[in-house]
Amino acid sequence: xxxxxxxSRANRDFKTGTExxxxxLIKNLIEIDKENKxxxxxxxxxxxxxxxxxxxEENKHVKxxxxxxxxxxxWTLGRLSLEMIFSAPDxxxxxxxxxxFFFPKKTITTIHDIxxxxxxxxxxxxxxxxxxxxxxxxxxxxIKILTNGRYRLESSDYLNWSTKFALKRAxxxxxxxNFTKNEILNFYKIKSEKIAMVYNGYNNxxxxxIEDKDKIKEVLSSYGINQSFFLYAGRIEKKKNINILxxxxxxxxxxxxxxxxxxxxxxxxGFGYDEFKYMISELxxxxxxxxxxxxxxxxxxxIFSGAEIFIFPSLHEGFGIPLLQAMACGVxxxxxxxxxxxxxxxxxxxxxxxxxxxDLLSKIELLLNDSVKKEELIIKGLNxxxxxxxxxxxxxxxxxxxxx
Length: 404
Known about the structure:
- 43% of the residues lie in helices and 14% in strands.
- The protein is an alpha/beta fold.
- It folds into 2 domains: 2-201 and 390-403, 3-Layer(aba) Sandwich (Rossmann fold), CATH 3.40.50.2000; 213-385, Glycogen Phosphorylase B (Rossmann fold), CATH 3.40.50.
- The strands form 2 sheets. The chain has a 7-stranded parallel sheet with strand order 3-2-1-4-5-6-7, with helices on both faces.
- Strand 2 (37-42), helix 2 (48-54) and strand 3 form a beta-alpha-beta unit.
- The chain is globular and about 65 Å long.
């Protein structure tokens, strides 16, 4: 059987959740399945480290196909569609939402979350960027005509359209949590049996509890971190609820004037970033908030291990891989009380009311003052993280592919 996979997200340079999902799922699928042939489609040549991980010399059953496309947008809908018309595999697997216009009968895709259905305000800007206003205007016009005025160029509209299209056309849908599966069933007309739930994993060979304090100190120092700190890792955007985190941290500094603790934010910037920069300035936190941007994965376990507390305040998530990464590194976790975090974290996470910065502050103070509670969370987190791995995710995904 020929299994084609959209590897474009896995090949991105600065990866976040869905990109890491694509990357590690592909890596593990080709390791555990030597019977089927794999074709990896990409919009550009694969990166050096991706090729190294794929180990093509040993994995002769894997073929790379670079599908060139003259535009910066709609590669999946355009170029991948053309490939499916003229040279379709037996099965097409798309690891994130959008499937091409044309596809084989056996097409399976993963839908990670549908937060855009809950709150469009958390999604801003166009789905793609354009070099000129005229190009933007033309594309916007054609989208309006083709969809009879129902959709625009905004991210939330594109996500809604591509999700509806995938739900209707794909033979099978994978979700990464029961929460996301239930959300889909709540918002869209689709039969439950068409959806399979397969939990995400994390890189358990990398994210581990690190005892080498000198190495932790060395890595932290290379990023300008020389004091005790609270950590957040994820995109710097509105749906991550960064404003509540900043408010809570500001209150902490106001109550503890002598404290030298820092707040470290790791992640690519997204919608709402300017608002957070303004907040940092207005709250006079410029010297206390360290924004590192995107950090290479090899350094992340050391930063996690050096953190006093990991805080994940999101308003919406489909899963939340950083929860697992933090727990696996032996860091106590405070997270917002959203349903999916309770599903993944269970009793190994300390939850706060998502819109209440005072409640977040109280949870921070609890862990700083109660060493027994802190150690209890660390132990539970280490145990809970063992329930997840990319190999397990790949095995269960392969089973769903075989059922098609």
